[in-house]
Amino acid sequence: MTPVMTQVVAHVPLLDLKAQYETIRSDVESALLRAAESQHFILGPEVDTLERSLAQFLQCKHAIGVSSGTDALVVALMAVDIRPGDEVIVPTYSFFATAGAVSRLNAVPIFVDIDPVTFNIDVRAVEEKITSRTRAIIPVHLYGQCADMGPLMDLAERRGLIVIEDAAQAIGAQYRDGRRAGTIGQIGCYSFFPSKNLGCFGDGGLVTTNDDVLAERLRLLRAHGSKPKYYHKLIGGNFRLDAIQAAVLNVKLPRLDGWSAKRRANAGLYTDLLSQSGLAREEATGVTNSREPIILPSAVYRECGVRDHHVYNQYVIRAKERDRLRAHLTANGIGTEVYYPVPFHRQECFASMGCIDADYPNANAAAETSIALPIYPELTAAQIEYVVVKIEQFHQR
Ligand SMILES: *Cc1c(COP(=O)(O)O)cnc(C)c1O
Asked: Counting atoms of ligand 1 from 1, which one is nearest the CA of 73?
């Protein structure tokens, strides 16, 4: 007789947007109604309010709503006048938009390997990629933790390069000096895609800057470069944010700090439980040793005394037997994802660049071992315990 299959005792999705919606439903409903009654659909007072609140929240001079995180990158590159043939240095391990935005302007993304501990751009590897054609660097604050901006800004200043931060996954995160992700380079780019820490009800994004001249250019480029209407100073695009998205975000922004704190607490519980299980340890070198099958994510600015040292858009562990572990978790009702299975230097669309795979050992290792566990704010301790029990069970077989 075949043994009775193990029952799926819980369902832990990777992300549960409905759980969050339940907590803000009535406020969101009135905001949506207000937006509908106003019949003002694009930019306007809701967007103005949001831009003011975000500039205050991020402690920067200008916050400018745009149509998506991808468009934030495109309009930022346009604002600093990136031209065909210019080289822009990006980490090879990120969401596609980081590199795609560069290519869309007929500029050339130049890929750099990542740091094995943080998964962020390896600042030491940036300098050797700088040529006479290099114009800018786009560090990505992956998973919700800042790239090492101090040395990166020093290098950029020394070599006369522009820094555009991809802070799509890191809104609110603080660098070791307390400054917020996206406010350290010349322009910061953010996404309000629903799965981001501050998500709207569709596509939306933001650019930030402390430079008045760049702010004016960004505002112009967002709406076809016209000022006044029908008189075009620059060739821009339609990169505008909808009022309805701003109305939703105006309800959510005051709750963002609380949600980030919950994400950090969830990460802390995973880290405690997985460490106690003996399966994992927090890794300072990023190298899997033979004893522990799992490496936990490192919060490298935790000791710097900044509260928002990490905002955990994702909680990504590395597992030796990643694909089999993932199948086991899926079979037990646990949602996971791989961010990202294919680094840029391995993408088919960049094949003509002739990248050498062996130049990117850390990104290649990350692509082969990383797995994101559920980390959203509304996750319960019981759900996290269940995930850890299932990870333990996998390794006991
Ligand atoms: C989500 C994301 C983007 C793109 O944002 P969209 O709003 O989806 O266009 C860009 N870069 C990174 C790192 C992202 O995670």
From this structure: 10
